[in-house]
Amino acid sequence: MASESTYYVPEQSRLPIFATIGMFLTAFGAANWINGGSAYIFFAGALAMATVLWFWFAAVIRENMAGLNSDQLKRSYVWGMGWFIFSEVMFFAAFFGALYYIRTFALPWLGGEGDRGSSNMLWQGFEHTWPLMVTPDAAAHGDAAKVVGPRDIIDPWHLPLLNTVLLLASSVTVHFAHVFLKKNKRTAFNAWLAITVVLGAAFLFFQVEEYLEAYQHLGLTLESGIYGTTFFMLTGFHGAHVTLGTIMLLVMLLRSVIAHHFKPDDHFGFEAASWYWHFVDVVWVGLFIFVYVLGS
Amino acid sequence: MAHGPQPGFKRWLYTTNHKDIGSMYLWFSFAMFLLGGCMALVIRAELFEPGLQIVQPEFFNQMTTMHGLIMVFGAVMPAFVGLANWMIPMMIGAPDMALPRMNNWSFWILPFAFAMLASTLFMEGGAPNFGWTFYAPLSTEYAPPSVTFFIFSIHIMGASSIMGAINIIATILNMRAPGMTLMKMPLFVWTWLITAYLLIAVMPVLAGVVTMMLMDIHFGTSFFSAAGGGDPVLFQHVFWFFGHPEVYIMILPAFGIVSAIIPTFARKPLFGYSSMVYATASIAFLSFIVWAHHMFTVGMPIAGELFFMYATMLIAVPTGVKVFNWISTMFRGSMTFETPMLFSVAFVILFTLGGFSGLMLAIAPADFQYHDTYFVVAHFHYVLVPGAIFSITAGVYYWLPKWTGNMYNETMGKVHFWLAFIGLNVTFFPMHFVGLAGMPRRIPDYALQFADFNQIASMGAFLFGAAQIVFLFNVVRTVRGGRKASDEVWDNPQGLEWTVPSPAPYHTFSTPPAVR
């Protein structure tokens, strides 16, 4: 193990430039696809990106197992993951902030209240309610409206409550896994981690169920005005993060089961994934309160 | 650790060396500075006379938009990251950045992002034309199709900034030489630490707002559309929640640079070091609670107008502390005026001028008159050109001998300074007058009575542009050779970077230096 008095500087590496090409193709391909072009560039980029990440993480794991990583470098990884999660918090903050602004200011003003209530003259007949079932467009233009509200919304005390239980439980199980890893009880670690992955997958399954119900039976879609917009963007980005977190934990599980990675005192890969998992859990609690319960 | 730079282009593609990456950032930034500058000259050429001469209004809009985006995200921010890469490890006694491979990644995605952004100029419907602030619904309902590529290029730039900021925080908090306590760090390191926090806090919000745009444009959401219950003003709130900290991201490292240069050429220690640190932190905190001063005229409750007005004025306090400290550092110092010092002194004077016009704009009722006029253009160019650009230039002259081992040509440096100084004042000072007289910004044509001042401004702009050619020539000449610089370069400068040889070896501090 390298000591504090020398530093580790990695050799020059081909990984970043390939990651650059992967990221560029993904972003360019996505824009091209959305603008009506072919989707191939996007998928090629995503594949390239995934491949590079595979090799990049493999390199980092190999270096650590070879004892190249000093305590200092390990602390850098810890700082890196911590601040990455903070950046994710701020990303969600933008969407939570948008929801707050819409509900507290924009909609009451559109409904004719307060300092900017005169905007109601553009949407005569619109009344402010939340959840917003009748959009300003529908209130002012009736059948000619292009943006109409949902017929109904998701009941928070059904699937969302179940999902809350699942996700909160998974935060506990991943913590159990961590405890057993630190005690070097591998079987228990693997078992609790596997349970966590299953809980994450179950959450995603019910989230898909909920979306299907919303689209097929409730008329609640991305296009159903600001309620559908904020609902799907917040829960959708959260779902994407749960998907990513589940994949991360699954990778950790496979690393443990297949490759026997992680030591009781050296397992930051797992810890980083579990931090991420706790983060998506906290976001969900915010969603359950502000989107589901206080939104119904 | 024996490995030196590889020969050939692979050195630059595969490098994990903070000096290589710093140089690439700086050259990339200069290229973007010239590109954005050329766009500014197109704008000034068109505005030389009233009426339409050179470009069509549609293209003029693309020029103002691309000029702003390229200068903010392509020129100023990467230049500061380049300086951070070069200087922070040397200043804190570290061998390199904390996460060197990610460092390479955060640089190389930038040229790709800007290639994508610049390519929109050649797309059907032209480049983004809605201003660098891309307000909805201009950027949503009325945007050209290339807006999608603009959105994804912003995503890549944000990823670059976040990774760069994480790297800088990890480096500063984790890689300092033993004995280098936080309150012994050079101010450039301090200001960058705080800037990095700002970046991590607001770049995700920018990613969020462009994502909302993308969804509104292509997937039928209603964030910024009142028809569905959204609000175009929401865009402005989210954008400026990013945007105001962003303008401090472009000025805090500048404070750090001049705080390094002024003590060297005044031959006195920096006055009020700890108050500088606290002032920087206060400015960073305040930057999060002033955003709506960009949108006084959009319609806000009176309580909002007042809150944002007073909070904005509060920023003048820590900023005043800084200006006071710089002046006190110079007071009764043994001053000499080499090129870095000239740029730094000009920074203090002209940035303060820009700060004063900022105070005028902060007064909500007065802002109703100034809003969207050339007065605003004058204000933010006074804080960005002699603020950010001059400090970057000063930093380059100051550290260039350390980077290359050669002294730059002092006469040419002074010529550069005076051309740039005169050029920028001739360009931007008249804009105060035409702005107060009511000339709106972002319009390719204007009323006849503004013609004289606009002609003066346009001539100044071309002078300022020409000055940068002198700069380029001087730097290239210094990189290629010239009088050898000593290890100290200047007269007893403070800081670890002056304890290593000139040019700085490829790997500095493979064992940590002792810091008293």
Plain-language structure description:
- The complex is a heterodimer of chains A (296) and B (516).
- With 296 residues, chain A is mainly alpha-helical.
- Chain A has helices at 15-34, 40-65, 71-110, 136-141, 159-182, 186-218, 225-259, 268-293.
- Chain A is elongated, with a radius of gyration of 23 Å.
- Mean pLDDT of chain A is 94; it is low at 1-5.
- Chain B is globular and about 65 Å long.
- Chain B has a single domain (20-499), classed as Cytochrome C Oxidase, Chain A (Up-down Bundle).
- The longest helix of chain B has 36 residues, at 57-92.
- Chain B has 16 helices and no strands.
- Chain B starts with 9 loop residues before the first helix and ends in a 36-residue tail after the last helix.
- In chain B, helix 2 packs parallel to helix 4, helix 6 runs antiparallel to helix 7 and helix 12 runs parallel beside helix 15 (410-436).
- At the A-B interface, helix 1, helix 3 and helix 7 of A face helix 1, helix 4, helix 5, helix 6 and helix 7 of B.
- The number of distinct structural domains of chain B comes to 1
- Output the CATH class name of the largest domain in chain A: Mainly Alpha
Instruction: Spell out the helices and strands of chain A N to C.
Output: HHHHHHHH
The largest sheet of chain A, given as strand count, sense and whether it forms a barrel, is:
none
CATH architecture of the largest domain in chain A: Up-down Bundle
